[in-house]
Amino acid sequence: VQVPDVTVLITPSGSAVVGMSYTLTCTVSGADNLEATIAFTGLNTASGTGTSLQLPLDPLDLTDAGEYTCTATVSSDLLTNNIVRTDTEEVNIPIPSLSVDVQH
Length: 104
Fold this sequence. Notes:
The mean pLDDT is 91. The protein is built from no helices and seven strands. The termini are far apart. 0% of the residues lie in helices and 49% in strands. It is an all-beta fold and 104 residues long. It has strands spanning 7-14, 22-29, 36-41, 46-50, 52-57, 66-74, 83-91. It has a four-stranded antiparallel beta sheet with strand order 4-3-6-7, with no helix packed on it. The protein has a three-stranded antiparallel beta sheet with strand order 1-2-5, with no helix packed on it.
């Protein structure tokens, strides 16, 4: 049995601004007709099966900043070992700047 060339990619969408909608999507490709178990780990988590998984951070908060990892595990009775692939995305959220207007 030929081992499939499985890849995992995290793509962010939305605005990395506090209060806005922001989503990380993990896409698994190359698994051929095998099912993948997908899991997001980090400050927020999600898991599921299939070829993609979304982790919505809505509304985005400063506490959501940090590193998120997506791990895809492809298993089959035809494979000797499970195929495990990961991708990591750093969520950077700019701290809103405060302006002070001082009048004399």
